[in-house]
Amino acid sequence: DVKLAESGGGLVQSGGSLRLSCRPSGFPFERTVLNWVRQTPEKGLEWVATINGDGKRPEYTESVKGRFTISRDDRKRTIYLQMDSLKSEDTALYYCSTDRFGASRGPGTQVTVSS
Prior knowledge:
Blueprint: E1 6-7, E2 10-13, E3 18-22, E4 34-40, E5 44-51, E6 59-60, E7 68-73, E8 78-83, E9 92-97, E10 109-114
Parallel strand pairs: 2-10
Antiparallel strand pairs: 1-3, 3-8, 4-5, 4-9, 5-6, 7-8, 9-10
């Protein structure tokens, strides 16, 4: 079974940082494209970032460019989302996903940014 387990969320003040982690299982990790998506009641599911199999050429939604960094460690079978300069509008439930639409995602980790 494909499983994705996110961690690292929490409550942080505006301007602060958090690092999310996701350790998938149930499929080959190396060379697999993985994504972070987030969800709020207002916007629904929103794609945040993608990392391809070799970790090069990451992609980001416009609102997080320059603030978020997606990375992967194949030895640990883990992907990360380093989030800096957090804003209140980054408050959401964050998931890692095997696609940009969140069709296959974990239970999520809550990020709350207080202003």
